[in-house]
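Journal club prep — side note

Before the paper discussion, L.F. wants everyone to see what a predicted structure for a comparable chain looks like in C-alpha cell form. Sequence:
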Amino acid sequence: MRSPIAIVDVDRPDSWTRYRAGLCASCAANCCTMPLEVQLSDLVRLGLVDAFEAEHEDPKRIAKRLQKARLIDHFNHKHLLFTLARRADGDCQYLDARTRLCTVYEQRPETCRLHPQKKSPKPGWCPYGRKA
C-alpha cells in the first residue's frame, strides 16, 4: 500500500518536496500543471514548427501563428521563449488525463527534461503530491 501523498500548492515552492530518484513514480504530475516556457528548438522537436520555418521565419510570426492555433499562450520576444497553451483544467496539453503520463515523453521540451534538478522555480525541489 502506498503512503499518502501530501497536498501541495504548485504556486508555493516553499511547500515542495526535495527531489529524489523514484519520486515521479507516485506523483500526480504536478509539474505538468505549471506554465511551461519552451524554446524554438523544443517546438521543432514537438512537431509544432518545422526546421525550415524555425531557421528562416521571424520568431514573432511563428508565435503569432501558434497563438492563433491556440498552441501557445504567450511569446517573450526578449528571451525568445514561448509559453505552451494548457487545457482548461490547467494541465499541459500533452498530459494524458487518465494516466497522468506525458504523451510526448521522447519529444518533451528541454524544460521538462531538466525539471526539477536544473529548470525549476526552486531547483532540486519538486511540487510532488496532490494538487491543493
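L.F.'s comment for the group: Residues 37-125 form one domain. Keep this in mind when we get to the figures.
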